[in-house]
Model the fold of this input.
Amino acid sequence: MSKNAKDLAKQIKGIAGDAPVRIGLILGSGLGHIANEVDGIAIPYADLPGFPHAGVSGHNPNIVVGAFEGVRVAVFGGRAHYYESGRGDAMRLPLEVLKELGADTMIATNAAGSMQPDMPTGSIMCLSDHINFSGLNPLIGEPTDARFVPMKDAYDPQIRADLHKAAEAAQVDMADGIYAWYSGPSFETPAEIRAIKMLGADAVGMSTVPEVILARFLGLKAAAISTITNMAAGMSDEAISHEHTKAMAPIGAAKLEKVLRGYLRALS
Ligand code: HPA
Done:
């Protein structure tokens, strides 16, 4: 673990208290408001040296440490993406800090485009696996043998089962599906979407995969949920833009929040 991560964890504990965090939540585009639901203390990324700027509109660049449905969590209100800096490991430091705060689990959320007609805008998808369509990897340059991270069951089967249980209890439809990571920041072409679909992906987005790889590298269990903000390029006449993503995210976000709350309540 880097010294910087240890120092930052100490700084955060000094502000938010020493009690160990159980779960880290990373919030995607249009989902940043969930951080406001946590009964805790918000610390701006800007106060944490080395933290990413998370400068994408629709994100909320604070870490909030406190209780959410009775579980001590650290909520990352914004994430850094590969496309902002050209660095695949842009979220490494925040995840190292999460581990230092005591967490054993990371749950990522994101906005994604759908390749499945029965998974329309406004629906949510629990990731069962991913395809790293970018060819990038956040562990490039990591010198230790720990870099050879096994990725079978990277999306923890028990957490997925518990998330599905929470969705059922909340009467929220949540599909299972495979997420393809596209580097962005431009959206995909229709030909790329046809290709990714043929490879077996159900949804596409510009995040999450590097975080899941890093989480597994750090020994954190991982899970992720997408909110579908649009049909992927060429799948419908629907507009695709960041504005549209932000406008549509709240529909799925309300469902996602119900699932997360139910999942955490059952843990507490
Ligand atoms: N493609 C990539 N990322 C996205 C999309 C998409 O269609 N929608 C939301 N994030």
Q: What stands out?
A: The mean pLDDT is 94. Residues 3-267 form a domain with the Rossmann fold fold (CATH 3.40.50.1580). The chain has one domain: 3-267.
